[in-house]
Design a protein that fits this description.
Elements (H helix, E strand, L loop, with lengths): L3 H8 L7 H8 L6 E3 L6 H14 L8 E6 L2 H17 L1 H7 L5 E5 L16 E6 H8 L11 H7 L4 E6 L6 H16 L6 E6 L21 E3 L2 H4 L2 H7 L3 E7 L9 H15 L5 E5 L3 H10 L9 E5 L5 H11 L10 E5 L13 E5 L3 H8 L11 E7 L9 H7 L4 H17 L5 H5 L15 H7 L24 E7 L14 E2 L12 E4 H10 L14 E4 L9 E5 L9 E5 L5 E2 L3 E2 L31 H4 L14 E2 H19 L3 H13 L7 H8 L12 E3 L14 H5 L3 H4 L22 H8 L3 H4 L8 H7 L4 H13 L6 H11 L26 E2 L2 E2 L3 E2 L2 E2 L5 E2 L2 E2 L12 H10 L4 H32 L1
Helix pairs in contact: 2-3, 3-4, 7-32, 11-12, 21-22, 21-32, 22-30, 22-32, 23-26, 29-30, 30-32
C-alpha cells in the first residue's frame, strides 16, 4: 500500500482523510503542536498517522503511542475507535510482514493486563493523565509498587506521547513538557517525542525550565486554505449555534439545591424538542444526580434519560457510555443527557440543545463543541446558566457557587460570553475563535530534574509511604483515591483495636470494583466517622489499606488514618457503610458507619483466563511477593530456569534492536539473575528443610508443589541420582491446595506450603533438623534471592570498586523483581535480639552467608562463595555509590536504566509463564 489516503480509507470504513490529516501523517519532522477545531478527527489523524509511519518502518517512528487524556470518558471512546482501526488494518500489516499494534487501556478501574512483559510489541496505550503521568514519574497509581519501574522505563523510552484536550490538564500539562525536556537531556533508548493538541490550544505552559521554546518556535499544524474549502470541514467550521445567558433565581448552593433543580428542570422541559438530543452539563456531581432524577417526569412525550459522570464503577460506566454513543434511533421523546465535565471533551455526540452552567472559558469552548457538532442542524441553541449573574463579587456566596472552579475564572468567562453575545453571531466555531483565550496561569508545581532522580528510588520509607507526585499531575484538591466495598465477618480479636485484620477468605480486589472519589472529601468524611456514644458498632468505622510492609502475609489490611491518605491509594470499605448505588454512582454524603440497609452491591467479575490482574493487595505489595512470578507444576532446577530466561531474552533483544553493550549486559544479567536461589534458606523455602552441605542435592529455582504426584525432574543424570525433591522434602498437606496467583515468597505459588511450615510452632522451628530458632526463621522470611544473586556477581566480577559494565549487570540482576533498589536497609521483622555481631543483615541476607557451588548453564559455574555485605555501608564503593553513579552516568541515565530493567523482567516472567504452560500440557498429556 503506497498511499496514505488508501491506508486511512481502509481503516476508517471508506472515509477519505481531511487534508490536514494527510499532512500530519507525512510531515517530516513531525509537529509539536496540533491546533485543530473540535469535530475534525484529531484522534483519527494522530493514531492513523502514527500507524502509517510504523507500517512503513520509518526509523524515527516510536514503538509505542501513548495517548494521554484528562478524563476517563475520553479513554473508552478513543480506545474503541483505535481497536476498530487496528482490526480493519490486520490484513494490510500481515501482507507487509509488519507487527500489528495492539490497543491497551490504562485508567483507574480498568483491568491492568500485563502489557509490560511484551516491550517489543508495538502498542497504542490509551489512558488518563493520572494513570499515565503517575507511571511516567515512577509512582503508578493503582499499580503494585514493584511494577512501577517497569512502567517508568516503558513509558519514557521509544514512545510518542500525545496529549489531547490540553486545556483540561492543569498542572499535568507542564509535567508533560518537563518530562519531554528531561527525556531529551537525560537520554532515552529509541526515538521519543511529544505532541500536544487541542481545539483551544495555548502553549505558555509548555515553556518550562527544561523544555524552553526553540529559537525558531514550536512546529504547529493548523487548518489551511485546502482544508477550509473541504465540504465537511466547511460545514463544521460554520455550524450555526445560537447563544443565550440565563440568570436563575436559585443559586445552586446545597441549601438551595432543591429550588435550583426544579428551576433548571422546568427550563429543560420548555426548550427540549422531541426526537432530538439535549445535553445538560453541570459542574458538580451532586447537582447532576439530583437533576437527572427531577427530569423523570413532566414531559408530554417522555424522553430517554442518561446520567454521565466520573464517579461510577467500570461496569456501570461502560453501560452508560455505550448508551451515550448508541447509534440506535431515539424514542419519539428524544434523549436528555445530564452530565458533568465528563463529556466536556472528546465525546463524539452532537446535541440540538446544550444547557450548561457557567464554566471556565476553555471548558465552555469544549462544551459548545458537543452542540451541532457536524452542522447537521440548520439551527441549534446554547443556554448558559449564569450562577454569578447577580451575586456580589468575591463574597462567601460567590465563592461557594463557583466551586469546583476559582471564582476569578468564572468571572472572566462571564466577560467573554458577553463579548460573544454583543457580536451577535452566536457561538459557532468561527465566532468562538474570534474571542481571545484568557492568559494561562503559571503552574504552581513544576517537576525538576532533582525531583525525577529522587523518584527513581521506589523503596518506601519505614512508614510505608512514598514521595507524593499528585501535585505534578492534578491541580489543587483535584486528586482522587480509589474506593472498593466488600462484606466480611467481624474478627472480634482485632475489630476496633486499630490492628491489622486478615481478609484471607476474601478474593483479592478486582479493578472492576473500584470507583474514584475525591481525596479531600473522603478524608473529611473519615475524620468524622465515630461510634455513637455508648454503642460499639458492628463494623469498625474506618477505611482499610493493604499492608505494604508485611513480609508475606496473605490478605492483611491495616486501618488507615485519614491524614495518611495519598492520591491513588486503594481503600477498602465495608459494604454496610453505603455510599454507592449502580444507578446513581458515588454518593459520599450517604456514607455511614452504621448499617442503614443500603449496602453497596458487589461486583461480579468474569475475567478471561490469562488476563487476570489484581489491583494491589498484600500479595502484590508485600516485600516477599511478586505478581506474575509463578511456578510450574513440576520442579525446575536453577540451570533449567536460567536457560529458559536466556532463551526468552533472545527474541526481545532481536525485536528491540538495543545497543550491543546493553544487550551484552542483559545476557549476563539473565545468566546470573537467579544464582541467589542457591542460598540455603531459599532452598529451605522450596524443599521444607535446609540442605545438608555434605550431601549433593539439586539446586532448584521452582519447586512445582502444585501437584501431589511424585515430581519428575528433567535435570542431568548426576542431579537425578541425588534424588527427587519429593524424597527429601517434608510432607505438607498445603501443597495439594492447588495453584494460586501469588504467594508470600517471590510470588511463587509453590512457596505456599513451606510458608505454612515456616509459621509453625517454636518447637518445630527449634528442632535440630531445621537448625534455626524462631527469630532467625522470621527474619529469613524476608530473604530476597535477587540481592544474593547481585552480591554473588559483584564479588566475582568487580569487588574492588565501581565498574560501569559490571555495575550495570549487578543492578539488572538485583532489580529484576522491583524490590531491591538504591536504598538498602533492614526491613521490619529482620531484627534479632542480642548484640549485632552478625550485622549487617539486609533483606534476609546475613554477612558471612555461604552459597554452594552453582551451575548456571552455558559453561558458567560459580564456586562456593561467602557473601560479604560490607557493600551496603555508605561511602565510596558502596552499593548506593555504585548505583547512583550508574544512574547518573553519561550515556545511561534513569530512563535507559529503567527500560533495560523492564526487558530483563519481561524475559523472566515470560519464561515462568512458558514453564507453567509446558508443565500443564505435560500433566494433561
Amino acid at each position: 500500500m503506497q498511499r496514505y489516503a488508501e491506508f486511512f480509507s481502509t481503516a476508517h470504513g471508506g472515509r477519505q482523510p481531511f487534508p490536514w490529516q494527510e499532512r500530519l501523517a507525512t510531515a517530516d519532522p513531525q509537529p509539536d503542536l496540533l491546533d485543530i477545531p473540535t469535530g475534525l478527527g484529531k484522534s483519527a489523524g494522530v493514531i492513523l498517522g502514527w500507524m502509517w509511519r510504523w507500517y512503513r518502518a520509518e526509523v524515527d517512528c516510536p514503538r509505542r503511542l501513548v495517548f494521554c487524556l484528562p478524563m476517563r470518558t475520553l479513554v473508552e471512546q478513543t480506545a474503541e475507535a483505535a481497536r476498530g482501526w487496528t482490526d480493519a488494518l490486520q490484513a494490510v500489516f500481515a501482507a507487509a510482514g509488519r507487527p500489528l499494534p495492539v490497543v491497551h487501556v490504562l485508567r483507574g478501574g480498568e483491568s491492568d493486563a500485563p502489557w509490560d512483559i511484551d516491550p517489543e510489541q508495538p502498542l497504542i496505550l490509551v489512558g488518563t493523565q493520572d494513570m499515565l503521568l503517575s507511571r511516567a514519574l515512577n509512582r503508578g497509581y493503582a499499580l503494585s509498587r514493584y511494577r512501577w519501574p517497569m512502567h517508568f522505563g516503558l513509558l519514557n523510552n521509544d514512545c510518542l506521547w500525545v496529549m489531547d484536550e490540553t486545556q483540561l490538564m492543569g498542572v499535568g500539562l507542564a509535567t508533560t513538557a518537563q518530562l519531554a525536556g528531561l527525556r531529551r537531556k537525560l537520554g532515552t533508548l529509541g526515538p521519543t517525542g511529544s505532541l500536544w493538541m487541542s481545539a483551544t490550544l495555548g502553549d505558555a505552559s509548555l515553556d518550562t525550565v527544561d523544555h524552553v521554546v526553540p529559537s525558531d518556535g514550536r512546529r504547529c499544524l493548523r487548518l489551511d486554505a485546502q482544508d477550509l474549502v473541504h465540504e465537511a470541514v466547511r460545514a463544521r467550521v460554520h455550524a450555526r449555534k445560537g447563544l443565550a445567558r440565563v440568570a436563575l433565581h436559585s443559586d445552586g448552593s446545597p441549601k438551595d439545591q432543591a429550588a435550583w433543580v426544579q428551576e433548571v428542570a422546568d427550563l429543560i422541559r420548555t426548550r427540549h424538542a422531541p426526537g432530538t438530543l439535549t445535553l445538560v452539563v453541570v459542574n458538580r456531581v451532586a447537582r447532576a444526580q439530583a437533576l437527572h432524577e427531577a427530569l423523570a417526569a413532566g414531559f408530554h412525550s417522555t424522553p430517554e434519560r442518561l446520567l454521565v459522570h466520573s464517579r461510577f464503577r467500570a461496569g456501570e460506566r461502560a453501560a452508560q457510555l455505550q448508551s451515550l454513543r448508541s447509534d440506535a434511533p431515539m424514542a419519539a421523546g428524544g434523549r436528555i443527557v445530564v452530565a458533568t465535565q465528563a463529556v466536556e471533551a472528546g465525546v463524539d455526540i452532537s446535541a440540538r440543545l446544550l444547557v450548561t452552567e457557567l464554566c471556565p472559558w476553555s471548558s465552555f469552548v469544549q462544551r459548545v463543541g458537543r452542540c451541532n457538532r457536524y452542522g447537521e442542524h440548520d439551527h441549534a441553541d446554547v443556554v448558559v446558566l449564569d450562577l454569578l449573574a447577580d451575586v456580589e463579587v468575591d463574597s462567601a456566596a460567590s465563592r461557594a457557587m463557583s466551586l469546583p472552579y476559582p471564582e476569578a475564572t468564572l468571572r472572566d468567562a462571564q466577560q467573554r460570553l458577553q463579548r460573544l453575545i454583543e457580536q451577535g453571531d452566536g457561538c459557532g466555531p468561527q465566532a468562538v475563535r474570534n474571542v481571545p483565550p484568557p492568559p494561562e496561569e503559571p503552574p504552581l508545581h513544576v517537576i525538576r530534574r532533582k525531583d525525577l532522580l529522587d523518584l527513581f528510588d521506589t523503596v518506601p520509607d519505614m512508614s510505608g509511604f512514598d514521595l507524593d507526585v499528585s501535585r505534578y499531575i492534578r491541580d489543587g484538591e483535584d486528586r482522587d483515591v480509589f474506593l472498593a466495598w466488600r462484606s466480611w465477618d467481624v474478627d472480634e480479636r482485632t475489630e476496633g483495636s486499630g490492628e491489622a485484620t486478615s481478609l484471607a477468605d476474601q478474593p483479592p480486589l478486582r479493578d472492576a470494583e473500584l470507583v474514584r472519589a475525591p481525596l479531600f472529601q473522603v478524608r473529611e468524611i473519615l475524620k468524622k466517622w465515630k461510634p455513637t456514644a455508648g454503642e460499639r458498632p458492628t463494623i469498625r468505622p474506618c477505611a482499610w489499606t493493604a499492608d505494604t510492609l508485611s513480609s508475606s502475609k496473605r490478605g492483611t489490611w491495616t486501618p488507615l488514618r485519614p491524614e495518611s491518605m495519598r492520591p491513588g491509594m486503594i481503600l477498602l470499605l465495608h459494604a454496610s457503610f453505603g455510599g454507592y448505588t449502580p444507578s446513581v454512582g458515588l454518593q459520599l454524603d450517604y456514607l455511614d458507619h452504621r448499617s442503614r440497609g443500603d449496602a453497596v452491591p458487589s461486583v461480579v467479575v468474569d475475567t478471561p483466563p490469562g488476563l487476570v490482574r489484581l489491583v494491589p493487595d498484600t500479595d502484590a505489595t508485600a516485600i516477599g511477593a511478586d505478581p506474575l512470578s509463578i511456578a510450574p507444576r513440576r520442579a525446575i532446577t536453577l540451570r533449567e530456569h536460567t536457560d529458559h530466561v536466556c532463551s526468552a531474552l533472545d527474541p526481545l533483544l532481536e525485536g528491540l534492536s538495543l545497543p550491543e553493550d546493553a544487550a551484552g549486559a542483559l545476557r549476563s544479567a539473565a545468566r546470573w539473575h537467579d544464582a541467589g536461589k542457591g542460598h540455603p534458606w531459599f532452598q529451605r523455602r522450596l524443599t521444607g528443610q535446609l540442605p545438608d552441605p555434605d550431601v549433593r542435592t539439586p539446586v532448584f529455582a521452582k519447586s512445582g508443589s502444585w501437584s501431589t504426584d511424585p515430581i519428575e525432574l528433567t535435570s542431568s543424570p548426576e542431579e537425578d541420582a541425588a534424588g527427587t525433591l519429593e524424597e527429601f522434602s517434608e510432607p505438607n498437606a498445603a501443597s495439594s491446595a492447588g495453584p494460586t496467583e501469588e504467594s508470600g515468597f517471590d510470588g511463587d505459588p509453590h512457596a505456599q506450603g513451606v510458608d505454612a511450615a515456616m509459621s509453625t510452632t517454636a518447637d518445630d522451628l527449634g528442632s535440630a533438623r531445621v537448625g534455626a530458632d524462631r527469630a532467625e526463621a522470621k527474619a529469613r522470611r524476608l530473604l530476597r534471592h535477587e540481592f544474593a544473586s547481585a552480591l554473588l556477581y559483584l564479588q566475582h566480577h568487580a569487588p574492588a570498586g565501581p565498574h560501569p559494565i559490571h555495575d550495570l549487570v549487578t543492578w539488572l540482576i538485583a532489580c529484576h523483581h522491583g524490590k531491591v533498589r538504591l536504598s538498602l536497609r533492614p526491613m521490619p521483622g529482620e531484627e534479632l535480639p542480642g548484640p549485632p555481631e552478625s550485622f549487617p543483615r539486609v533483606l534476609g541476607l546475613w554477612n558471612g552467608d555461604v552459597l554452594p557451588a552453582l551451575d548456571l548453564g552455558a559453561d558458567v559455574s560459580v564456586p562456593p562463595t561467602t557473601l560479604d555485605l560490607s557493600v551496603v555501608a555508605l561511602g565510596a564503593g558502596s552499593w548506593a555509590d555504585r548505583m547512583v553513579r550508574l544512574r547518573d552516568a553519561q550515556g545511561m541515565g534513569p530512563f535507559r536504566l529503567a527500560l533495560l530493567e523492564a526487558v530483563l523482567r519481561a524475559a523472566d516472567q515470560r519464561a515462568s509463564r512458558d514453564e507453567v504452560e509446558a508443565s500443564a500440557h505435560q500433566r494433561t498429556a
